[in-house]
Design brief:
By secondary structure, this protein is of the alpha+beta class. It is built from eleven helices and 20 strands. It has helices spanning about 20-25, 60-65, 70-75, 115-125, 175-180, 235-245, 245-260, 305-325, 335-365, 370-385, 385-395, and strands at about 5-15, 35, 55-60, 80, 85-90, 95-100, 110, 130-135, 135-145, 145-155, 155-170, 185-200, 205-215, 215-220, 230-235, 265-270, 270-280, 285, 290, 295-300. Strands 5, 6, 12, 13, 14, 15, 16, 17 and 20 form a nine-stranded mixed beta sheet that branches. Strands 1, 2, 8, 9, 10, 11, 18 and 19 form an eight-stranded mixed beta sheet that branches. A three-stranded antiparallel beta sheet has the order 3-7-4. It is globular. The structure holds flavin-adenine dinucleotide (FAD). Flavin-adenine dinucleotide binds next to helix 1, strand 3, strand 9, strand 12 and helix 8.
Amino acid sequence: MKSAAARQYDIAIIGGGLVGASLACALAPLGLKIALAEAVPFKASSQPSYDDRTLALSASSCQILKGLGIWPLLQDNATLIREIHVRELDRPGRVLLSAGELGLDGFGHVVEARVFGAAVMGILPDIENLDILCPASIVSIEPGEDGARIVLDQDGEQEQIEARLVVGADGAHSFIRESLGIESESYDYQQTAVICNITPEHAHQGRAFECFTPSGPFAVMPHVQGRCGLIWCVHTDDADALLDLPDDEFLYAAQQRFGDALGAFVKVGQRSSYALRLVKAHEDIRPGVVIMGNAAHAIHPVGAQGFNLGLRDAAVLAEVLHDEISSGNERPIGSIEVLRRYSQWRAPDHQGTIAQSDGLARLFANPSPLAAAVRTAGLFAHALLPPLRRQLAVKAMGFRGRIPRLALGESLEIEQV
Ligand SMILES: Cc1cc2nc3c(=O)[nH]c(=O)nc-3n(C[C@H](O)[C@H](O)[C@H](O)COP(=O)(O)OP(=O)(O)OC[C@H]3O[C@@H](n4cnc5c(N)ncnc54)[C@H](O)[C@@H]3O)c2cc1C
């Protein structure tokens, strides 16, 4: 892997979306030379990662983001989730998760993806050892003995870079995953999420609502300035009609589905939509390569876990590399022994979170009476048994299995000797 023309890096992150940009911040204290290549300009209205979506960030994610220095730029536009109300449309059984009941302030915060994008753009340019290559799209990757060579397209010009470790954070259609022939399985839920902001008549008071329907969840998240983020999953065949409804008819339809817990819905913002698919890679490491975030696992938004899961990927990789560098080992950072520690650590969280979101999405879409009985029994069990509610809350807060140090409020500074 030698080329006079290629720029040399320790780590090249491909994809500067929610996960790739967070990883760049997490790696900043390690003293490594990093390239971050992102295809779409960060401020472009077409930026796919930093759009109008409201993201529910778990308590562990908020803690990680504090450690990355991103949280101070988000907190004024973040809304605390104090209660989560769960029910199934037209069926009995309701679960109320109350942070107060568990002695907590909240379960996490809601932040707009666009606000997140503005925050990371405020931080990334100040990271000394980071080159931001944007807009730059990867066109080829050639793995070598101690890293990989990458060709990027920047405004029609091709540039080569070489890195000891390449991280594919390039989303569900990951070029890195496909180019390396990493197999993945995918499942089309035949559901489309229609998202928008709505303003209800009454204050949300930090309450989040998730109503399961046969076509997927209808979720209302507390947001700033009295607004709420709406995620309405419908059968894909019905999505266009919902997107095209005049505002007053859309508000009426949403109200019919939601009920009057927040009074009348009085205003709706711009609507957009996302087809929902599960994508699950069969491997997340190769020598000199890691794939993470949506590139490794794109999941159904039920339970709002996708970015939370990817952020934990970033926190764990940064910690594994931190410990490797601090240990004084001579091993290359992209060696499979180092990366295996990352992959083994992440596996239980990946499996658990994917199984939960996929299981819920399929169970609530299942029309059989047996599945309906299981759902109702599950809701009643959670409503009646505080230990089950506590377990659910701990998972919703992103504390699963071995917790990365950043999520415990510890830093990853390298100690100078
Ligand atoms: C409707 C909906 C609601 C959601 N709500 C939540 C929520 O409340 N909480 C939560 O935790 N998660 C939520 N998610 C999931 C969350 O959006 C994803 O988990 C998250 O976007 C994954 O981030 P990522 O950086 O891995 O991928 P992406 O966001 O897809 O970013 C990938 C980046 O890579 C870039 N890229 C792609 N190809 C290339 C290339 N060839 N070269 C260079 N760059 C490239 C793209 O431009 C993009 O910026 C939701 C998802 C949906 C669809």
